């Protein structure tokens, strides 16, 4: 799993990055995403940041990527709405 956090001062760049990153994961906060990890996905994200976003960085802009290993996933405490995100949903018709 990856946790990705970003902050851009330019609204257009922030909106564009948000649209880009949504294809890989789900938002857990406004500018924080949880992404299912694979080497290919991580490389795609890093390449896009390097090529398209890093050249536009201003002084306070940032992208942080945290790689969470399987052992560490068990250490994550989820509360409220986030606690239900990992549970399976069963629908009866």
TrEMBL record:
GO terms for molecular function: hydrolase activity; metal ion binding; RNA endonuclease activity. Homodimer, forms a heterotetramer with a Cas1 homodimer. Coiled coil: none annotated. CRISPR (clustered regularly interspaced short palindromic repeat), is an adaptive immune system that provides protection against mobile genetic elements (viruses, transposable elements and conjugative plasmids). CRISPR clusters contain sequences complementary to antecedent mobile elements and target invading nucleic acids. CRISPR clusters are transcribed and processed into CRISPR RNA (crRNA). Functions as a ssRNA-specific endoribonuclease. Involved in the integration of spacer DNA into the CRISPR cassette. Gene3D superfamilies: 3.30.70.240. Mg(2+) binds at residue 7. Keywords: Antiviral defense, Endonuclease, Hydrolase, Magnesium, Metal-binding, Nuclease. Its cofactor is Mg(2+). Belongs to the CRISPR-associated endoribonuclease Cas2 protein family. One of its GO terms (biological process) is maintenance of CRISPR repeat elements. Its EC number is 3.1.-.-. It comes from the Bacteria. The keyword NAD does not apply. This is CRISPR-associated endoribonuclease Cas2.
């Amino acid at each position: 799993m990856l946790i990705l956090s970003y902050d851009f001062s330019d609204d257009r760049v922030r909106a564009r990055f948000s649209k880009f990153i949504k294809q890989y994961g789900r938002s857990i906060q406004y500018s924080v995403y949880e992404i299912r990890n694979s080497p290919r996905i991580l490389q795609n994200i890093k390449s896009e940041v390097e090529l398209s976003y890093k050249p536009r960085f201003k002084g306070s802009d940032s992208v942080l990527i945290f790689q969470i290993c399987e052992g560490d996933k068990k250490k994550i405490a989820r509360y409220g709405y986030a606690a239900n995100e990992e549970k399976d949903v069963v629908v009866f018709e």
